[in-house]
């Protein structure tokens, strides 16, 4: 990152493959209308959510430095977040799910720094600073929930994806961008909506990432907490949507007890949610997460874990029972009796132990891939990893000797042993051979002319997960989303309206202004008759000043707007309710 800003030690320790997603938050990009949108949503939220949100919400606003009056500066937030062990970074819209979750694992909150347009003030499918800053940030001030979020990221970033997952990510990212952008042809929106719908309706077996993404949606984004018949809101998607936060409390939305079955409930980001899940407390979230993690290849390993990695066609890691970790793109597995007996990667591969790359086993050394048997030797009950030095010598597994090792599953390794690599506990984890031939029945898997054969030692696959064991083993700084967020279109008319908004903001803040309130309202009515939010802000100032004559004119203008623009009538009412503190507004 070239831009300088107030950082935080947590950001400083992020690996480069995550830092590639960070962009500077240019605060000067926020316009007076953007600030008014933030202020309206936050005033409505604080007023309404103080009654229906989990009690951590209002507390969290103070603890995380979120102000009602101004869009937050993340660099200022970082100074405050540091006190509760978190940090915040700005990104451009949706980022890949694995990366999003890995940021959480580092206690870093990802914030899409753009803000929704006035036309989408109630809800936008695009992530924005209202959703992230006003939704996610306050709740992480609750230590129990913050640990759930971190743990979710730690487990979630290891979930194995499918090729379809990335297609869905790209399609949803594009849909969110097009729906938020001004002037997008409806035909373009319809086309990408159909694309998203078709992908989501695919009946193929959902990947681990698809399932855990559902859990994330129904908790972190759209979660309710407490009693089924009287829940409170804690999900960021609800906390940041003035429309859906009210809708979700009605009987129109079915409330279900939260359990692992939520992983199989899909969602549509473009529609109001027909059902929501209620957790009795934050501790229950962690119980369900661990229950789900117990079913992941991360913990179950085995043949199914290797097969998930092969199907993902992406960088992943297999860990054997000795602790040795093989990271690469897995392309083949030979199985016998439901167990993997030989693993094969193609292309750059690295070997690690306890998430640290082994010296001499980087991607340049294993540039063409890596293959190794898994399991026990035929007719010998004692696995190689469990053999003492005396046992190894008895079976001729000894430096300088030529040996033929016949594994269960008809894998044969025949060659001259050069050396072995042991872990700190003394268990042998790699045996290196020269003049080596490896076969499966009549199929040759490795030939002497290919060079040194390094055999990983392990009687079973104990774990399989997405990504490398050691993040420094691979160049992961290469992700470029196929779509970019679209900035609001500037025009002479929009610039003139922005100046009127700034003028009212200056008056409210006691700063020098070019126009009086009356002059501003006259220009607004004449040149921007369809705008409603600035009239609400003008009404607020007039009420504070007891200028009832002009106030009646403004309210009459807003009443007329409610008739000509019925879709925003409730927004006008909502703004006036805040001003008059629930007094009757005709």
Automatic annotation (TrEMBL):
| SUPFAM superfamilies from the UniProt entry | Aromatic aminoacid monoxygenases, catalytic and oligomerization domains (SSF56534)
Single Gene Ontology BP annotation: aromatic amino acid metabolic process
Q: Name one Pfam family in it.
A: Biopterin_H
Coiled-coil stretches, from where to where?
A: none
Write down the required cofactor(s).
Fe(2+)
- The answer, when asked if Metal-binding is one of the entry's keywords, is yes
**In this protein, which residues make up the domain named Biopterin-dependent aromatic amino acid hydroxylase family profile?**
1-342
InterPro entries, per database record: ArAA_hydroxylase (IPR001273), ArAA_hydroxylase_sf (IPR036951), Aro-AA_hydroxylase_C_sf (IPR036329), Aromatic-AA_hydroxylase_C (IPR019774)
What residues does Fe cation bind to?
131, 136, 221
Tell me the GO molecular function terms.
Answer: iron ion binding; oxidoreductase activity, acting on paired donors, with incorporation or reduction of molecular oxygen, reduced pteridine as one donor, and incorporation of one atom of oxygen
- What keywords were assigned to this record? Iron, Metal-binding, Monooxygenase, Oxidoreductase
By sequence similarity, the record places it as follows:
Belongs to the biopterin-dependent aromatic amino acid hydroxylase family.
Which NCBIfam families would you find in this protein's record? Answer: PRK14056.1
Name the UniProt record assigns to this protein = Phenylalanine 4-monooxygenase
């Amino acid at each position: 990152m070239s831009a300088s800003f107030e950082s935080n030690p947590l950001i400083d320790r992020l690996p480069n493959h995550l830092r590639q997603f960070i962009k500077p938050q240019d605060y000067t990009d926020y316009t007076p209308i953007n600030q008014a949108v933030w202020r309206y949503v936050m005033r409505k939220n604080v007023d309404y959510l103080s009654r229906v949100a989990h009690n951590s919400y209002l507390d969290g606003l103070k603890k995380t430095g979120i102000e009602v009056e101004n869009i937050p500066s993340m660099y200022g937030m970082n100074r405050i977040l540091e006190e509760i062990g978190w940090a915040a970074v700005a990104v451009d819209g949706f980022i890949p799910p694995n990366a999003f979750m890995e940021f959480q694992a580092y206690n870093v909150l990802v914030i899409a720094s753009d803000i929704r347009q006035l036309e989408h003030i109630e809800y936008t499918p695009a992530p924005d600073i209202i959703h992230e800053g006003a939704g996610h940030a306050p709740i992480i001030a609750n230590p129990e929930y913050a640990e759930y979020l971190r743990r979710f990221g730690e487990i979630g970033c290891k979930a194995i994806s499918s090729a379809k997952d990335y297609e869905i990510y790209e399609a949803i990212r594009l849909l969110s961008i097009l729906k938020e952008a001004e002037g997008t042809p409806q035909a373009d929106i319809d086309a990408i909506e159909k694309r998203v719908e078709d992908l989501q309706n695919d009946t193929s077996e959902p990947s681990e990432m698809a399932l855990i993404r559902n859990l994330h949606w129904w908790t972190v984004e759209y979660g309710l907490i407490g009693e089924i018949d009287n829940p409170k809101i804690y999900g960021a998607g609800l906390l940041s949507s003035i429309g859906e936060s009210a809708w979700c409390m009605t009987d129109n939305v079915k409330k279900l007890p939260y359990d692992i079955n939520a992983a199989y409930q899909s969602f549509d980001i473009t529609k109001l949610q027909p059902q929501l899940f209620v957790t009795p407390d934050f501790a229950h979230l962690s119980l369900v997460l661990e229950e789900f993690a117990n079913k992941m290849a991360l913990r179950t390993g085995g043949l199914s874990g290797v097969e998930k990695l092969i199907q993902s066609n992406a960088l992943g890691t297999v860990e054997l029972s000795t602790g040795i970790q093989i990271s690469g793109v897995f392309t083949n597995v030979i199985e016998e009796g439901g167990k993997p007996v030989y693993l094969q990667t193609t292309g750059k591969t690295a070997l690690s132990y306890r998430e640290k790359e082994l010296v001499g086993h980087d991607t340049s050394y294993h540039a063409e891939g890596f293959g190794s048997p898994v399991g026990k030797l035929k007719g010998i009950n004692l696995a190689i990893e469990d053999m003492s030095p005396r046992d190894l010598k008895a079976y001729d597994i000894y430096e300088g000797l030529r040996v033929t090792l016949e594994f269960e599953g008809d894998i044969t390794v025949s060659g001259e042993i050069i050396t072995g690599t042991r872990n700190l506990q003394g268990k042998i984890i790699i045996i290196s051979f020269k003049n080596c031939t490896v076969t499966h029945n009549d199929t040759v898997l490795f030939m002497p002319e290919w060079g040194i054969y390094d055999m990983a030692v392990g009687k079973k696959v104990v774990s399989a997960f997405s990504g490398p064991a050691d993040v420094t083993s691979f160049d992961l700084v290469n992700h470029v989303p196929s779509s970019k967020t679209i900035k609001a279109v500037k025009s002479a008319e929009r610039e003139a309206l922005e100046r009127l908004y700034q003028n009212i903001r200056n008056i409210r803040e006691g700063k020098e202004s070019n126009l009086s309130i009356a002059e501003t309202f006259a220009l607004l009515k004449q040149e921007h008759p369809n705008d409603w939010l600035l009239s609400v802000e003008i009404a607020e100032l007039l009420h504070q000043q007891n200028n009832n004559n002009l106030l009646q004119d403004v309210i009459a203008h807003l009443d007329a707007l409610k008739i000509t623009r019925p879709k925003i009538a409730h927004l006008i009412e909502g703004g006036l309710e805040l001003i008059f503190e629930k007094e009757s507004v005709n």
